[in-house]
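Below is one protein, fold included:
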Amino acid sequence: MSKVYLISGLGADARLFKNIILPVGYEVVLVDWLIPNSIDTLTTYAQSIINKYNIQEKSIVIGVSLGGMISVEIAKKVKLEKVILVSSIKTDSEAPWYFKFFRSLPVYKAIPGKLMTHVGFLIKPMFGKMNPDDLRLFKSMLSNSSPIFLKWALRAALYWKNSVVFPNLYHIIGDNDLVFPYKNIKNPTAIIKGGTHIMVFDKAGEINKSLASIL
């Protein structure tokens, strides 16, 4: 039975995948965030995930948002059967314009890490509309996130560099994603109509169909 590792996005945890259903015959492993070292990059952090969860060759990794970027780094170290990105980017050339802006003007450094766990008011304008239950869940995930991890992850994502695209990489993106605009994505596997950055909640049915086809 193939193992499928699910890696959530920044400010989220394994509850993000509550509506994701994979075909029969796969062993699902939910990956929890580890507290990084201050000098970690996404590359070294990916190695920590590999070590912690013993990710081996022929495994499958599915990553959402930041989790997708880390999935790419895992694929550079382990010969995966498949790597699947959802609402993410596979190279730094797909990064949105504001990545460059925040590298030039790193205002995020002045924001206390604890404050980052209480910015639920930004979810709707950036991530898209959610039903009340999903919104409460996402705010709960954010408030329970480690301030140390959030602060580190913002910087690590902004300075991530990758130009390697694997032939066994599959990329699912929503056409209404404001965090990672789909027009920046080269050769996506599937474009989910009306999908926002948090489409794993409200477009899970369509994503599950795409995942079943890929798997």
